[in-house]
Amino acid sequence: MGYEVHITRKDAWFDDDGPAISLEEWLAYVSSDREMRADGYAEAQTEEGMLRIEDTGIAVWTGYPSHGVDGNMAWFCHFRDHITVKNPDAAILMKMHQIASSLNANVQGDEGETYGPYGKPE
């Protein structure tokens, strides 16, 4: 299990109602950002073998400083009405804030805490 951080327009990312980030909007953002690539899947090597998840809303940040190092990838996943990243480090949190600013959204942790432009909780 890991900790997830979300890009959302809602007051709380887990609310049922509120402004959404559509899949089309997300994919349009990804295609406009030269450091992002819409792969439609994420893969990771586990002790049991290769784990692969396929979804149209999955993109990877190719500009991630640790991209490809020891299998590290920064996967961004559109889910319903927001974008989620599992276990983001400071660099990913800063990228999330950049994306959120572009989408007129904010960055929230699983417990509802918000993150500022430098990847730190506010």
Describe the protein.
The protein is α+β, with helices and mostly antiparallel strands and 122 residues long. It has one domain (4-115). It is built from two helices and nine strands. A seven-stranded antiparallel sheet has the order 2-5-6-7-1-8-9, covered by helices on one side. A two-stranded antiparallel sheet has the order 3-4. A hairpin with a 2-residue loop joins strand 6 (75-79) and strand 7 (82-86). The protein starts with a strand and ends in a 7-residue tail after the last strand.
Features:
9 strands; alpha+beta; 7-stranded antiparallel beta sheet; 122 residues
Helix content: 10-25%
Distance between the termini: 24 Å
Strand order of the largest sheet: 2-5-6-7-1-8-9
| Count of distinct structural domains | 1
Question: Using DSSP, what is the number of strands?
Answer: 9
The structure class reads alpha+beta
- Characterize the overall form: globular
* Rg result: 14 Å
**Average pLDDT, all residues:** 91
- Low-pLDDT runs of 5+ residues are none
Q: What share of the residues does DSSP label as strand, in percent?
A: 25-35%
Q: Biggest β-sheet, characterized?
A: 7 strands, antiparallel
